[in-house]
Amino acid sequence: MSLEGSKLFSGREISSRRVSGLIQLYLQDNQTVSASNPFPDIMDEVTYLKILKDPNFWISQELEDKLISTISQSVDISAVLYHLGTETLITNAYDLLPLDDSRINLAELIHRIPILINRLTRTVFLNIQFSDSKTALFHFQYHTQHQEKWFDAIFFQGMLNGLAVLFELKDYSIKMTKTRLFGIHVAHKDLGDEIQFGADVNEYEFKWKEEPFYLSRSKMTKDEMSNRHKVMIVSKGDTDTEQISIIDVNDVVDKSRELAIENRDLEAAVEVLKSFKYELEKKQLSIAKDLRLAKNIQQGLIPEIIPDWRGIQFWAAYHPMQEVSGDYYDYFPFTTDTLGVAVCDVSGHGVPAAFITALSKMLFMNYQKGKPSETFKFVNRDLLDLVKQQGYTTCVYALIQDDFKVIYSLAGHPRPILLRAKTGKAEVLDGAGTFLGMFPEGGDTYEDYSVQMEPGDKLFLYTDGITEAENDKGVSFGDDRFLALIESSSHLTIQETIEFIMQSHKEFTMGTDPMDDITLLGWQVSPKLPEFNEYKYSADVYYKAKDYKEACANYQKAFEILPRELSTQFYYGRSLAYSGQFEQAVSLLESYNRFKTNNYLSHAVLGYCYFKLDIFDKAESEWKKAHSLNDENLSVLYNLAMVYLKLKNKSKMKDILGRMKKIDPKYKNILPLEKKWESMFQNV
């Protein structure tokens, strides 16, 4: 398209000075050295050459808008626009000075800025008001047929910065206070902290504090000048004591351009750093997410509570130093008369250590040998094969028998501590053995040791994170302090003892960061075991006789002695359910199901309690669990059918009836259910 024949860009409202600088930036960034027009879809070759070579060439606002829109898609033009504004003010300020070479101050030059605006654009006019002698308000108002642009906001503020450069201001502020725009293409913070968008005017506030210099044209003759640059004089003070410096406009412009390039490079570096920071934050979030997942998985591997067993009560404290831990403890039911308990401390911390704890759990479950030392031999062998000596674990592993004899073995771990109820004295038990997963010959070092516990005795397994912890003075918690605390708590229950020790440990190390993971596991042979056995025996007799009231009374007394004994929990919960005490039964059976997930009867009874409490969604859930554990039990299916009858769920009830017929077509409750189903849904 020719310049003369263009209808699209026929208007001439804007000086091409601004867009000329942006095109040169575009050519530089795209490493374009050819003189050919890089925007053939926007303008012709003649227009392109005039924009680059003729400083007095004018173009339409529409053409400028299209060029800036295209350039800004590949180049960040914000900083360049600002510096182009500064450069424009500096290069044109000479023509605004008095022709008689008299000097003017900053306020007088500000009043002349509208002359410069008229030389640059026909789309906007400028009104200036002074709120005081050192505060000027610039109101840029657009003509009706033209719209304000986001790039104008940056360019005009850059022009005001040119005033500060010329008058060598040190303490000043320039900010946009109002705009008709409803947003700016770039970040607002450099334009102003509190911009009023959607206003009826575009306003800037220019404040300065110090007494500014004066500015005048140079009195030097052309013969005295080495070149024909525009030269101005900056002065300050009275005529007799006047301080004078000479400004070569070209030098100022060159320095401004150098500063613009440096700022642009700096901003590019900042953007790269921001990008790195963003990527780092993304990776940190991803790692944090993975760590939370690992933490949740590990929490599933480590028991929250070990249930009471055969008159023995357990309690544990577990405090990881990080999201995931290298400490690990667990229990392993062998037979009705033996229970295995292990405490491990993996080398290192974090995810690698947590990985070995997961392996340890798997291996201890696989190798439930009759002697702890035999189990260690197999675990050591498999850890060597799996971990390749890239990590190891210390461990204490004990088998508790129903006569309270404890057989244990050590693998580089702190020795157990036994507190005798009769004497109130704590003693460190014997034992030795090397790490698991480090030495192929380690199997030869593991031995079995035994100790006989009596009612009231307590035994403690722990990791060295307890004794090696230090206070803010560098003093370690130590073995002696640990033993003294155990002895001072001889009158407490095992739960109270563990909590007392950990509270004392917390107070000792207060103000310091944890140095290691901490685990403390203890158990006590109940001193009231004979009473428990008596109540439990009487309760079982009443339960079999279906005297649930008396059964509940005796189970309650047994439960108070050993509240985490699972058999007592289960039968106490069933007795409460059969005697109509559904809410109390729910509490006990839910607790039981957290430890025993595979007992279909506990889910069946719990579903019955929810049903009687009209909590049908939970009744359905529990009876589904019961059915999954025993899918041939017709009574559970019958109960599910009753739930769907209550919920008026026609399709699910029909499905349940079909399952019942497949198992036993002659089951007595099928026909009554079908009649209820037909009666309930005959109008549907």
From TrEMBL:
Domain PPM-type phosphatase per the UniProt entry, residue ranges: 309-525
Origin superkingdom: Bacteria
Coiled-coil region list: none
Alphabetized UniProt keyword annotations: Hydrolase, TPR repeat
Start and stop residues of the TPR repeats: 532-565
InterPro entries cross-referenced by the UniProt entry: Bact_Sigma-Reg, PPM-type-like_dom_sf, PPM-type_phosphatase-like_dom, TPR-like_helical_dom_sf, TPR_rpt
A Pfam entry, by short name: SpoIIE
A GO molecular-function annotation: phosphatase activity
Protein name: Serine/threonine protein phosphatase
